[in-house]
Amino acid sequence: MPAQPRQLTPDRSARHLFGAKMRAQRERAGMALEGLSDVVNISRSHLSRIETAERMPPPDLPPRLDAAFGTDGIFEELYRLASREIHPDQYQRRMELEARAQVIGEYTAQIVPGLLQTEDYARALFTEVRPWEATQQDFEEIEELVTARMSRQARLAGDSPLEYTAVLDEGALRRGFGGAAVMRAQLAHLAQLTLTKKTMVQVLPLESGGHPLLSGMLTLLTVDKGTRVAYEESITTGTLVEEMGSVVYLQRAYDLLRARALSPEDSAAFIRSAMEDLPT
């Protein structure tokens, strides 16, 4: 007797609802997983685990499903909800605000911001927090985190009216993750984003000395109706700052960093210099 498909609970989460809708549309079309695999160019086993909500859908799957089933964007809408569920509770509201933000400004001292990371850099970064021998479950969780991080970057490539600026301490360029090849690709990606229609990236050299934001990571979000909030992140926790006086202080500190940082053109040259310093 063939194994019964795993029972889904679409009222439990957006990810389960995504899997339930995917299975329902596939069965309505009289299509087996093997047939859908040929249409969307994703392995049968991967699709099976997405249907049973064991894996997060990759960001390029929802539009392919909508095209295959003629569902007019339903799967893309579900994906936007499901992708936020990967993040721990303390990040949920931050993710919701980021999705609505019209202006984002970020400062990081040690790592490249998530919206600017390459897939390999993100994977290496998530792997570093598991220095012990990783289990298969760890690897699967890492892949889900990487998928979620890449999905956030769609706003930088789409038609949304987002303005993004970032100040990166020189340490974020020099601290390697994943080896020289991964860092070279990451730095090349950064150099391309120093000045585009949506992004402005600046480097703050070490010779600039100390500043008020040196000990942490900061994200400033301007959402609809001009509401401004800040998000401060430490090693294991994040704090959403909504009190206006505190937000204004952090905004002034960020503006000061931007004024002291290299111009986008000089930042691109600095990043390319850091690439040349990497071992071959």
UniProtKB/TrEMBL annotation:
<dbReference type="InterPro" id="IPR043917">
    <property type="entry name" value="DUF5753"/>
</dbReference>
<protein>
    <submittedName>
        <fullName>XRE family transcriptional regulator</fullName>
    </submittedName>
</protein>
<dbReference type="InterPro" id="IPR010982">
    <property type="entry name" value="Lambda_DNA-bd_dom_sf"/>
</dbReference>
<feature type="domain" description="HTH cro/C1-type">
    <location>
        <begin position="22"/>
        <end position="61"/>
    </location>
</feature>
<dbReference type="GO" id="GO:0003677">
    <property type="term" value="F:DNA binding"/>
</dbReference>
<dbReference type="InterPro" id="IPR001387">
    <property type="entry name" value="Cro/C1-type_HTH"/>
</dbReference>
<dbReference type="Pfam" id="PF13560">
    <property type="entry name" value="HTH_31"/>
</dbReference>
<dbReference type="Pfam" id="PF19054">
    <property type="entry name" value="DUF5753"/>
</dbReference>
